[in-house]
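BUG-612 | component: ligand-complex export | severity: low

The export step for 2-deoxy-2-amino glucitol-6-phosphate jobs runs without errors, but we want the raw record kept on the ticket for reference. Input record follows.
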Amino acid sequence: MCGIIGYVGNRPAVPILLQALRDLEYRGYDSAGIAVLDGDGVSIAKKQGKLVNLESALSNVPAGTVGIGHTRWATHGRPSDENAHPHASCDGRTMVIHNGIVENYASLKEELSARGHAFRSETDTEILAHLLEERIREGADLFRALRETARRLEGSQAIVAMSLDEPDVLAAARLGNAGGVVVGFGNGETVVASDLAAVLPITQEVAFLADGQVARVTSGGIEVATVDGDPVRLERKRIPIDPVTALKGQFPHFMLKEIHEQPEALADTIWSLATLDPAALYFDDLGSAAARLAQVERVVLIGMGTSLHAAMLGQRYIEAFARVPAFADNASEFRYRDPVLDGRTLVISVSQSGETVDVLEAMAVARAAGALQITVCNTEGAQTTRVAEGTVYTRAGLERGVASTKCFTAAVVALYLLALRLAMAKGRVTEAELAGHLSDLAHLPGAVATIIARRDALRGRAIQLARAEHVLFLGRGLAYPVAMEGALKLKEVSYIHAEGYAAGEMKHGPIALIEPAFPTVAIATQHALRSKMVSNIEQIQARGGPVTAIVTEGDDELAALCDAAIAVPPVSPWLEPVVAVIPLQLLAYDVAVHRGCDVDQPRNLAKTVTVE
Ligand code: AGP
């Protein structure tokens, strides 16, 4: 959480910092601030609330060409002007921005206070400015000061600092998994940011800091060392940029735009991993994992939120196609429960950002146990791709809406194909069967486009659901993760309380909630468990609960049974989750808009969760 940007170059820094903060605002939007070196001094502006507040408060725009900026998701200290970053040292000469949590904050604060430092905010970040000030006073340059400061910190951090004592230098550090630090190399200018969204509009030439690395950043490039001072050479990469995905275009919100992008995102993901004629799979980024797939005896899939729901579907695909025992787990639970893993366990992490702290920590647990790792990730060069032996990239393009949509469906099809790849390695799928699966997939983008084109027909349903205080989502089999995802989408963007349940669980408690004001959305497409779902729907209706069902086109019998039905085109039963989730995404969006919610920046949330 929190967006970080630093710029050192030949152009006025303020417009560049503000544009970068606009590109990063989805990472946090409690407050924002910038600091720019200006002649012999520094100009700092900070404002509580969204970036627009900061922009309207900027009266004198300094012309300096070195600066830092931050958009905050509060951890220590409430959102306020004082707690907004950047934070300055007592002498006002050193400024820092930060993402993460200084876990030994209390003892460091006590120590610094005893040495006479005065604190102006409630944040843990301010500690860093005071620690840097002490090192610089002792004679260290900013680069060394940050390395020495880093050694005193507990917890995960991403830090960028600047100092009036070295006005053409920034220092940046990545410690643990508090989000990435990416450096962008331009023409006579260098940027350092928490993610690619802020860097790519400036340059496509980038490098990523790894855990424990600190960089000295100047307009000519970087020098990198470990926190202990050992020099490091970073590999530079050229990242392809798709300028269209970064803009809202004709859409009022990123979420709606990204829902509409799904047919293309699915096609890009599918055909980057497979061909129809010949029917074949191409996993170019599996690296050393490819040769070890045949030895895999067990698979654990990990993720958080929407990515966990994709992982739950991956579990079902792997068991069905490869007949290997598979289990999907919440990464934040997995990492703390001393899981049983060995060299024949494949751990598949699913993460849109590739920077989610719980996923990265869970991967560290898996690595320590010697498990083979593959990550399913949408972000080129993200940390999960650097930890895992192999990567399956989803090709959904940049996702900016905090509510994940296209990255969910892209991850589901990537996992479907990965399950087939594992099944091939295990000899459990014939070439003819593979051809059948790929031909099923070929129809999927078109089916998704058909549903999206019917959005207007869903609006009436959305207006009704918008009045509810609680909504239940039910599914069985492959529709169970879809029910979970439908509930998550609704609650995060509309603030309506929603729960996703396995329909069979209903009678074990939740049915007590059913009454006329408590609507249910039942995912009842034509899968093998449809008849069981019909019984569940009847049980709810018998207790006066209104039911909206997601049904397969032509299933008039079920449509007639329910209070409302939303039909989706027929696809292979394995792919029903992808078509069934589209109306749930659209419903969540329209309900949220109807309730006047901030769809792209829901309260309390941030796109990438880099703190525990
Ligand atoms: C989804 O709409 C979320 N906002 C959230 O649950 C997200 O999926 C989760 O934080 C995981 O993120 P990741 O895929 O980047 O790891």
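Assignee comment: Attached the raw record above. The pocket of 2-deoxy-2-amino glucitol-6-phosphate is lined by residues 304-307, 351-353, 356, 359, 402-404, 492, 608-609 (CB under 6 Å).
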